[in-house]
């Protein structure tokens, strides 16, 4: 263990003195905080999208972020993936303060995500789309790729094997070679999840993975999310509107409204929080 | 004051006038971009086409005479009459409206919802088509265009400045007219878009296609209208350029300079097009004036583009454009 | 039953990813290659070589280059002509400065020089997109051509401002200069085309190609899932310019023999190559071949028909040609944005299933 790692661990232990490693009733191991958002404030010109929000995400948990439209949930996800840079506040990742990073550097650090409006590469096949998830793991030089000899071809086959496992896992073998543009909505969502999973992320960010799905598709997707978390222990952060889904899936929930955090805790607790009920049922904001 | 300073000022003023010309072409781009989100590469060729048509009508040329002669072995070329300028201009305008209609019917209608870059490449195709069509209709030789605008150095300005500064400024009367006409055009367009029903519809479409459709504005009618107006602007630009340097193919290349003008001014701003045009016009003349001894002449070929490129690196949204917040 | 695929099973991932997954296609490819290399030279006249096949092969390379940039990485460049000029003038300077340098290396080095220039003008692509970038590449086009016509060092102070290719040989056979025969030049270019097309195919099926396509299809998402836009875009500009530079070097050294920048590498060349890519098919290696064939051989046939057979004046025929090309671009963008290649692909999918509809 290097000195910096040791210090990181120490910091981590200090920060999370109250949050020891524990096991959930269904037998999943939840660790200390892997990602911490500290006093994040994000502004677009005069508009404040996120106002002084802090919360943490523990290793191995399923963390949900909920809130009405325009609450700043997606902006928060964009801050985590390094697409937006907050004006104030810090992001701590694996016990270290994260420097200002470009999105691709964040991805390289093991954070993968899906998007609210599907962001698949429409001009490519399902297989190629999922293979892009492996880009950060592929090392062959441009020259080796150009002659397609030895290392490049070997690497391609190795990663194809990994991708095939994800394809099996998400049950999309039959559409492997189909151009993404031809797929129906529900399958596109699944391919997007596959692309994120192919990256073997430490943290998986899901931006409304079930929006616009029918009940059956939602059930499938819920099963996949749980299975991923269960089998690979992937930490999952989830934005979702369907309260039933959120309550069933998540270990802890952050509630946002108008860019502010109004609740944080286990689903049952959040459900009974007066501020949350007000936000969802609509109470005038003048007296809030 | 040393004579060099007067030279520089004179160069700058003449650059302003060239800038007005660029701005005129850029104006056509902005109109179409605002209404349909299309970057119309063919705007310059439209100016050429309009000028060719105007000369053709004015001098009574038979359209497609070369083609007809080649196919049927005839030897026709002119009807043998000269149309009054104003009739020829109206006739040309009719042709430009017809063109707008055809473009909408045959091209735009089929490319709705395509990516901007595909639409852009389509307008490059359109530019080629129009260029070929113009040549086939009216012949490719250089033509004189005379619509009765005064030309040559303004004696009055020369005399006045000589009396005041002891230096005889050379300023082309045509350039002054061009500036005046451009100003009238911009004011006219602004009034049109602010105070007429069609103008409001135009702005609505520019703002949000879907919303405009939902309140009952016909997108297709608006497109025909904008392309017609752009055709009219092209005609004005064509007349100006044609009167100053003859109607010839190089006109469409000069018009390409409107592209860097747009980058400076932003794609959606009419004042931006004017200011951008003036900056480019003055900038390239002065650059050439000062650097010709060092790097050799003809820097006008690339100065505008280089300026735009450097500018883009620092302010991708243009002088007057708003900063775009990207979303996922 | 033109395609008989039954029993052609893929057992490894490598076999599944090969260029021609269908056995029939592999045979057709090798046959075409053997025909081009062994049979065509037998009846190749100098006129046929220099008027048709050599320009065709050279423009295939240029179209491949632009297709890598535009069709795969989604970055539109209107500077192709300028970059071809860089290749041509680099080749000229190399040939005159190092007379002993083998012509193959001259061409490759000229490509590398162009790649460096391409990266330089590709830098703005990191901040600007779409037609903004297209306008920025116009700066490359006009500046480079101006540079090569104005700075005498580039044309070795020749009084005409032209550059002329001295004679160079390969295995004792002259490849450049007035004594080069059509057959040897044709084979020389064919060699380049085969190797470069093969490299392009490999690049586009690997991880680099995927990162290009990801940038093309949705650049923001691509960056968020881990594509480094700097690396993807600049590598696309570099490799694309390498191809375009080689095309320019070949056009000057073996096809034209003498050139002047503003005439041989004007903006019309940029458009010509762009049109080849559009007509052939964006994002397709085969498309570069089809597009170049269409726009090199088509006009020659048209001219034969209009001028030689119907007796039209040459300039009228040229104008009609411009019109037809413009119309074709519109027709293709409207009816089949993926070009002739897509038509071929649809046909092939039907043939693979024929005679059964499903």
UniProtKB/TrEMBL annotation, chain B:
GO CC terms in record: plasma membrane
CDD domains: TM_PBP1_LivH_like
InterPro entries: ABC_transp_permease (IPR001851), BCAA_transport_permease (IPR052157)
Membrane topology: Multi-pass membrane protein
Transmembrane segments: 6-33, 45-66, 86-108, 117-140, 174-193, 221-241, 261-282, 294-314
Pfam families: BPD_transp_2
One of the protein's GO biological processes: amino acid transport
Subcellular compartments: Cell membrane
UniProt keyword annotation of Transcription regulation present: no
Record bears the keyword Transmembrane: yes
Top-level taxon in the UniProt lineage: Bacteria
Assigned keywords, A-Z: Amino-acid transport, Cell membrane, Membrane, Transmembrane, Transmembrane helix, Transport
Gene Ontology molecular-function annotations: transmembrane transporter activity
Similarity remark: Belongs to the binding-protein-dependent transport system permease family. LivHM subfamily.
Entry protein name: Branched-chain amino acid ABC transporter permease
Species in which this protein is naturally found: Rhodobaculum claviforme
From TrEMBL, chain C:
Keyword annotations of the record: Cell membrane, Membrane, Transmembrane, Transmembrane helix
Subcellular location: Cell membrane
Xref: InterPro entries: ABC_transp_permease, LivM-like
Any one of the GO CC terms: plasma membrane
Transmembrane segments: 27-44, 50-69, 76-95, 101-123, 130-149, 183-200, 236-259, 271-296, 316-335
GO molecular function: branched-chain amino acid transmembrane transporter activity
One Pfam family per UniProt: BPD_transp_2
Topology in the lipid bilayer: Multi-pass membrane protein
Keyword Cell membrane: yes
UniProt name for this protein: Branched-chain amino acid ABC transporter permease
Organism, scientific name: Rhodobaculum claviforme
Lineage: Bacteria, Pseudomonadati, Pseudomonadota, Alphaproteobacteria, Rhodobacterales
């Amino acid at each position: 263990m290097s000195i910096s790692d040791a210090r990181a661990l120490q910091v981590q232990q200090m920060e999370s003195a109250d949050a020891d490693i524990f096991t959930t009733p269904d037998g999943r191991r939840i660790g200390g905080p892997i990602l911490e958002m500290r006093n994040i404030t994000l502004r677009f010109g005069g508009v404040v999208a996120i106002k002084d929000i802090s919360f943490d995400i523990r290793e191995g948990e399923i963390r949900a972020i909920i809130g009405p439209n325009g609450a700043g949930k997606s902006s928060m996800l964009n801050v985590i993936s390094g697409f937006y840079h907050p004006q104030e506040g810090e992001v701590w990742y694996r016990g270290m303060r994260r420097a200002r990073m470009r999105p691709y550097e964040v991805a390289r650090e093991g954070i993968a995500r899906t998007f609210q409006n599907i962001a698949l590469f429409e001009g490519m096949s399902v297989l190629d789309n999922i293979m892009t998830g492996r880009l950060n793991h592929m090392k062959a030089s441009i020259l080796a790729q150009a002659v397609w000899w030895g290392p490049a071809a070997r690497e391609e086959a190795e990663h194809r094997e990994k991708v095939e496992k994800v394809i099996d896992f998400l049950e999309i073998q039959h559409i492997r070679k189909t151009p993404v543009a031809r797929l129906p909505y529900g399958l596109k969502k699944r391919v997007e999840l596959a692309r994120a999973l192919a990256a073997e992320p430490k943290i998986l960010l899901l931006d409304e993975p079930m929006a616009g799905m029918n009940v059956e598709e939602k059930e499938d997707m819920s099963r996949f999310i749980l299975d991923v978390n269960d089998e690979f222990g992937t930490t999952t952060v989830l934005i979702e509107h369907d309260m039933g889904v959120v309550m069933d899936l998540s270990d802890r929930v952050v509630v946002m409204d108008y860019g502010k955090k109004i609740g944080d805790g286990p689903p049952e607790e959040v459900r009974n929080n007066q501020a949350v009920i007000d936000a969802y049922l609509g109470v005038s904001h003048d007296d809030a | 004051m040393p004579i060099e300073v007067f030279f520089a000022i004179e160069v700058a003023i003449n650059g302003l006038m060239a800038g007005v010309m660029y701005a005129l072409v850029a104006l056509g781009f902005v109109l179409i971009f605002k209404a349909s989100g299309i970057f119309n590469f063919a705007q310059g060729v439209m100016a050429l086409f309009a000028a060719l048509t105007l000369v053709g009508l004015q001098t009574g040329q038979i359209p497609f005479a070369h083609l007809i002669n080649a196919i049927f072995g005839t030897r026709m070329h002119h009807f043998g009459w000269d149309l009054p300028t104003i009739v020829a201009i109206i006739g040309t305008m009719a042709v430009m409206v017809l063109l707008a209609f055809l473009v909408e019917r045959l091209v735009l209608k089929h490319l709705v919802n395509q990516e901007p870059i595909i639409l852009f490449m389509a307008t490059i195709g359109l530019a080629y088509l129009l260029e070929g069509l113009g040549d086939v209709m009216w012949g490719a030789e250089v033509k004189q265009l005379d619509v009765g605008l005064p030309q040559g150095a303004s004696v009055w300005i020369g005399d006045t400045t000589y009396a005041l500064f002891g230096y005889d400024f050379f300023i082309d009367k045509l350039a002054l007219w061009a500036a005046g006409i451009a100003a009238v055009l911009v004011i006219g367009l602004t009034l049109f878009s602010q105070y007429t029903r069609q103008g409001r519809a135009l702005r609505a479409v520019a703002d949000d296609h879907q919303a405009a459709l939902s309140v009952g504005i016909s997108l297709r009618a608006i497109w025909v209208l904008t392309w017609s107006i752009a055709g009219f602007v092209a005609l004005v630009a064509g007349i100006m350029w044609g009167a100053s340097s003859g109607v010839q193919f190089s006109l469409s290349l000069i018009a390409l300079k409107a592209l860097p003008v747009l980058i400076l001014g932003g794609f959606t701003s009419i004042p931006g097009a004017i200011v951008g045009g003036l900056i480019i016009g003055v900038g390239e003349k002065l650059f050439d004036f000062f650097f010709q001894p060092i790097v050799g002449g003809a820097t006008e070929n690339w100065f505008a583009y280089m300026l735009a490129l450097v500018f883009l690196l620092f302010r991708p949204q243009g002088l007057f454009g708003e900063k775009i917040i990207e979303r996922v | 039953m033109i395609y008989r695929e039954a029993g052609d099973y893929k057992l490894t991932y490598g076999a599944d990813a090969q260029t021609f997954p269908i056995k029939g296609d592999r045979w057709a490819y090798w046959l075409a290659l053997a025909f081009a290399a062994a049979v065509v030279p037998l009846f190749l006249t100098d006129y046929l070589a220099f008027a048709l096949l050599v320009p065709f092969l050279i423009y295939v390379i240029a179209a491949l280059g632009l297709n890598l940039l535009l069709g795969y990485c989604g970055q539109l460049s209107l500077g192709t002509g300028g970059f071809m000029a860089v290749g041509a003038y680099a080749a000229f300077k190399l040939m005159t400065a190092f007379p002993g340098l083998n012509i193959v290396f001259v061409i490759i080095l000229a490509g590398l020089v162009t790649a460096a220039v391409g990266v330089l003008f590709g830098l703005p692509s990191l901040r600007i997109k779409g037609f903004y970038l297209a306008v920025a590449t116009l700066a490359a086009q006009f500046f480079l051509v101006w540079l090569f016509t104005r700075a005498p060092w580039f044309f070795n102070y020749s009084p005409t401002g032209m550059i002329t290719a001295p004679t160079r040989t390969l295995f004792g056979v002259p490849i450049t200069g007035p004594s080069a025969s059509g057959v040897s030049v044709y084979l020389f270019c064919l060699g380049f085309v085969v190797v470069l097309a093969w490299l392009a195919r490999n690049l586009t099926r690997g991880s680099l190609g995927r990162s290009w396509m990801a940038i093309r299809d949705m650049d923001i998402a691509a960056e968020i899932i881990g594509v480094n836009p700097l690396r993807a875009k600049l590598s696309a500009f570099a490799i694309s310019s390498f191809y375009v530079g080689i095309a320019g070097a070949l056009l000057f050294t073996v096809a034209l023999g003498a050139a002047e920048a503003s005439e041989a590498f004007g903006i019309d060349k940029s458009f010509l190559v762009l049109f080849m890519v559009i007509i052939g098919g964006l994002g397709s290696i085969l498309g570069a071949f089809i597009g170049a064939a269409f726009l090199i051989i088509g006009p020659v046939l048209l001219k034969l028909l209009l001028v030689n057979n119907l007796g039209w004046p040459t300039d009228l025929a040229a104008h009609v040609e411009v019109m037809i090309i413009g119309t074709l671009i519109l027709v293709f963008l409207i009816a089949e944005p993926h070009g002739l290649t897509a038509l071929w692909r649809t046909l092939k999918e039907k043939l693979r299933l024929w005679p059964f509809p499903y």
